[in-house]
């Protein structure tokens, strides 16, 4: 009796589907199209962004209060002292990085650049991209590069990591400046600001090669490579085409 009831139900369902086949197909299409959109929306809702109070800035020893912008390389008092090209190049964040701890399974970044600079001889990832590294038992290991798309940018750098606490380091653009930058983590994870910054530093002075030209990404500028290898702050005073010993 039960088998007969089930069979009748299946026959009725088949007849309904045949009768409304076009409508049913449209329903299935809409259902499958909505799944990726729903997933992306859910994913974005699970990311929480944190600003400058949750990481330290390295590659500079100049206090934020003395600068026109936090990510400048020279203090505001130098604006009327150095030549205009030097001042404009000092707005680039070459050699700077931010460092933080997090147990998030994903890492995203939002950053806004000053000029949306483009050059025909250098990759945009080096000009205005962001590189992510993590401390792997004392060695800084490369993870990914955030690719820029314009003035305002957002990029998911890592996903599906285990939720253990790690130390991360992000290298900032070499030939463009930063207005602001925020770190995105899982909404149920934590982000912590390191307590200490290495008091020792090395200062590099030069022109385009020192500034980072034409590295394919920020972490590959030689001052940043040395900074990782020695685990020491390197201050980049490379001013492209303008290293005149000022």
Textual characterization of the structure:
The chain has 246 residues and is α+β, with helices and mostly antiparallel strands. The protein has helices spanning 2-19, 21-45, 84-89, 124-128, 208-211, 222-230; strands at 47-50, 56-58, 97-102, 107-113, 130-136, 139-146, 152-158, 166-171, 178-186, 191-192, 201-206, 233-238. Strands 2, 3, 5, 6, 8 and 10 form a 6-stranded antiparallel sheet that branches. The termini are far apart. Residues 37-42 have low confidence and may be disordered.
Helix percent reads 25-40%
Give the CATH class of the largest domain: Mainly Beta
Number of helices: 6
- Mean pLDDT over the full residue set: 89
Alpha carbon gap, first and last residue: 97 Å
Number of strands: 12
Shape: globular
Q: Which strand-content bin applies to the residues?
A: 25-35%
Oligomerization state: single chain
Radius of gyration equals: 25 Å
- The CATH homologous superfamily of the largest domain is called Galactose-binding domain-like
CATH topology (level 3) name of the largest domain: Jelly Rolls
Give the gist of this structure.
The protein is an alpha+beta fold.
SSE topology:
Layout: H1 2-19, H2 21-45, E1 47-50, E2 56-58, H3 84-89, E3 97-102, E4 107-113, H4 124-128, E5 130-136, E6 139-146, E7 152-158, E8 166-171, E9 178-186, E10 191-192, E11 201-206, H5 208-211, H6 222-230, E12 233-238
Parallel strand pairs: 11-12
Antiparallel strand pairs: 1-9, 2-3, 3-8, 3-10, 4-7, 4-9, 5-6, 5-8
Q: What attributes does this structure have?
A:
single chain; 246 residues; alpha+beta; globular; Jelly Rolls; 6 helices
């Amino acid at each position: 009796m039960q088998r007969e009831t089930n069979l009748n139900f299946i026959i009725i369902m088949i007849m309904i589907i045949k009768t409304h086949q076009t409508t049913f197909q449209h329903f299935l299409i809409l259902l499958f199209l909505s799944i990726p959109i729903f997933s992306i929306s859910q994913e974005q809702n699970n990311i929480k962004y944190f600003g400058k109070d949750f990481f330290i800035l390295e590659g500079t020893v100049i206090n934020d209060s003395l600068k026109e912008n936090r990510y400048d390389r020279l203090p505001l008092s130098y604006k009327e002292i150095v030549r205009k090209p030097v001042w404009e190049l000092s707005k680039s964040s070459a050699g700077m990085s931010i460092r933080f701890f997090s147990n998030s399974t994903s890492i995203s970044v939002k950053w806004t650049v000053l000029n949306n600079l483009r050059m025909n001889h250098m990759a945009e990832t080096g000009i205005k991209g962001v590189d992510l590294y993590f401390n792997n038992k004392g060695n800084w290991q490369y993870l990914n590069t955030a690719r820029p798309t314009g003035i305002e940018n957002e990029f998911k750098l890592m996903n599906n990591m285990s939720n253990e606490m790690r130390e991360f380091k992000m290298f900032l653009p070499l030939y463009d400046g930063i207005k602001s930058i925020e770190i995105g983590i899982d909404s149920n994870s934590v982000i912590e600001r390191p307590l200490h910054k290495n008091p020792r530093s090395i200062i590099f002075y030069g022109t385009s090669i020192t500034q980072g030209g034409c590295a394919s990404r920020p972490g590959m500028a030689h001052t940043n490579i040395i900074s990782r290898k020695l685990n020491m702050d390197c201050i980049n005073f490379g001013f492209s085409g303008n290293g005149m010993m000022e």
